[in-house]
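Checklist before submission:
- one chain only
- standard amino acids only
- sequence pasted in full

Submission:
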Amino acid sequence: MSTVDEGVKVLNDKGMTTAEYAIGTLAAAGLATVLLVLLKGDWVMALLQGLLQKAFTAGT
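Returned file contents:
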């Protein structure tokens, strides 16, 4: 702990950025896992194929 001029004790927060990076990394990995599971599904492939067919046949 360190002290400020008024005598108020301030907690030292060294290492907090490391913890924040760790939480952010875990969140990103979790989101990537969810997206991977969703994109491997058959319904997503059918949705994308339908979307592409509509996009390529829109001008005809």
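Reviewer check: The longest strand covers residues 2-3.
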